[in-house]
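ARCHIVE CARD
Drawer: 12
Card no.: 0347
Subject: one protein chain, sequence and derived structure
Cross-reference: see card 0346
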Amino acid sequence: MNIGILETGRPPGNLAERFGDYPAMFAELLGPGFETESYDVASGELPNPATHNAYLITGSPAGVYDPLPWIEPLEEFIRAAKDSRMVGICFGHQVMAEALGGHVEKSDKGWGAGLHNYSVVRREPWMDGADGIAVPASHQDQVVIQPPNTNIVAESSFTPFAALAWTDRPAISFQFHPEFAPAFAKALIGRRYDIVPDPDAAIASLDAPNDNVRVAGWIRRFLQA
C-alpha cells in the first residue's frame, strides 16, 4: 500500500538529527508492507488526492487557528480526499476535525505531556479487545466540538475527544502520539521543560509500558481494510 505522509511540522532543535523526522517515525511505525512518500505541507506541497491509497497527517507545532498560508489548503485537501483512507495524529487529528465541522482551541487545561491513559469507549473493526491504552501525548490544543459524522473511540478526563472514527468516510484520528518512542518523548519534554507542568513527572511517566505497538496495529489494520 502506498501512503502519502503529509508532514506539517518538524521536531524542534536537533531532535530530527537524533531521532529522525516525523515521516521516518511513521514509516517505522507502519512497518513492512507500506511504501511512503512525504510532502512538506508547511512549504506548500500537497499531492492530488487521487495520488495515494491513503494519507497520514503528522503532528505540528502550529495551531489550526494560526494565520498560516498552508492551513486552509490542507483543510481543503482533507475535504476533497473523502474517498482516500486518512489517519490524523495530534495536529492531524485537530485539523481533520476542524476541516470537517468540529472545532479546536488552545485548551484551558494546559499542556498534556508524558504517558497518558485513555479509555476505549467504542471498538471499531480495526481494533482489538483492549479496554484502555497508554500512549505518549504532547499537546496544548484540543478538539472541543466533536465533528459531525464521527464516533468517539477513546477518551480521558483530560482529552474527551482523544480518538475519532468517521462514519461517512474512511478516516480515523488520534490526539496522542503512537509514533513517539519514549526517548524522543522525553527529549521533547526537555525542550519544553519550562512550560510543561511538572516536567519531571511527565518524563518519569514514560518509563511505564506503553501501547504504541497496539495502536500501530490498529492503524495498519485500518489502512489495509
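Annotation on reverse: The chain has a mean pLDDT of 97. The chain has seven helices and eleven strands.
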